[in-house]
Design a protein that fits this description.
about 130 residues, mainly alpha, 2 domains, about 75% helix, globular
């Protein structure tokens, strides 16, 4: 295995582990890490890439993204609710100066815009 493939393979496994942890830890996102894992496996191991594409829990998420750039409506809602709850709780318990708070809110706004401007269904699915 070349160094590049080894690096991608390592990145994929680390991302997958972080994605799985994100299921249980509210501040750690799941979806981005799973998508990075899929990318890493696609560049390093067809076997593990196929395994992730066909995975019972993560397969549809990865296939939707890779094939159509889709983030399903339930994932958008869950992400939005999680982010709003975590930010609200954090801002309530941790007092920040205005500039760090503005920077955090701008970053989160960019993430929310990205999430909500992705299609919710593949083009070939009728609503």
């Amino acid at each position: 295995m070349s160094m590049k493939k080894l690096a991608m393979f390592s990145l994929a496994w680390i991302s997958l582990a972080l994605g799985v942890l994100g299921i249980f830890l509210p501040l750690l996102p799941t979806t981005p890490f799973i998508l990075v894992a899929a990318y890493g496996f696609s560049k390093s191991s067809e076997r593990f890439h196929q395994w992730l594409l066909n995975h019972k829990v993560f397969g549809r998420l990865v296939r939707d993204w890779e094939n159509n750039g889709v983030i399903r409506l339930n994932a958008k809602i869950l992400a939005t609710v999680s982010i709003v709850l975590m930010l609200s709780t954090s801002f309530y318990f941790v007092r920040l100066a205005i500039m760090p708070m503005v920077m955090i809110l701008l970053s989160v706004t960019c993430v929310m815009i990205f999430i909500w401007t992705r299609p919710s269904l593949p083009k070939d699915v009728k609503q």
